[in-house]
């Protein structure tokens, strides 16, 4: 069992890192009461998903998907650019999500004077 785990860590380290980032991000989103820490957890979770897409799209010995004029069918191994394009788009969406989240956090702090979720619930219940 231990050899299996060490073999996974040695050969598939991107997947192991992905699970660690995903776990830390999920823990930060669930366990923390601070809204900034929750947003950092969302960003870590997004980074884990990006790493997963890139790791899955990796092709051993793959070349760019430009077919030469005289292709040799036996040695033609190409990597698909689609996962990388999806990750690039997701990074842009993640940056926009982070910017909007930070703007909301600044506005919440200006209005209520706190960033703790439990305190915000109490203040909103009193209104």
Automatic annotation (TrEMBL):
Origin: domain of life: Archaea
InterPro entries, sorted: CPA3_antiporter_subunitC, NUOK/Mnh_C1-like
Subcellular locations according to the entry: Membrane
Keyword vocabulary terms for this entry: Membrane, Transmembrane, Transmembrane helix
Membrane topology: Multi-pass membrane protein
Gene3D superfamilies: 1.10.287.3510
Chain ranges passing through the membrane: 12-30, 42-61, 81-106
Pfam families: Oxidored_q2
CC terms in the record's Gene Ontology section: membrane
Keyword Transmembrane helix among record annotations: yes
Major localization class: membrane
NCBIfam families documented for this protein: PRK07375.1-6, PRK07375.2-3
Protein name, per record: Cation:proton antiporter
């Amino acid at each position: 069992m231990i050899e299996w785990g060490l073999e996974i860590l040695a050969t598939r380290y991107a997947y192991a890192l992905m699970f660690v980032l995903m776990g830390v991000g999920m823990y930060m989103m669930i366990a923390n009461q601070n809204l900034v820490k929750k947003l950092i957890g969302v960003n870590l979770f997004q980074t884990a998903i990006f790493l997963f897409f890139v790791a899955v799209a990796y092709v051993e010995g793959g070349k760019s998907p430009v077919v030469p004029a005289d292709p040799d069918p036996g040695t033609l191994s190409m990597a698909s650019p689609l996962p990388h394009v999806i990750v690039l788009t997701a990074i842009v969406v993640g940056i926009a999500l982070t910017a909007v989240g930070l703007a909301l956090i600044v506005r919440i702090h200006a209005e209520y004077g706190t960033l703790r979720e439990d305190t915000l619930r109490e203040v909103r219940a009193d209104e």
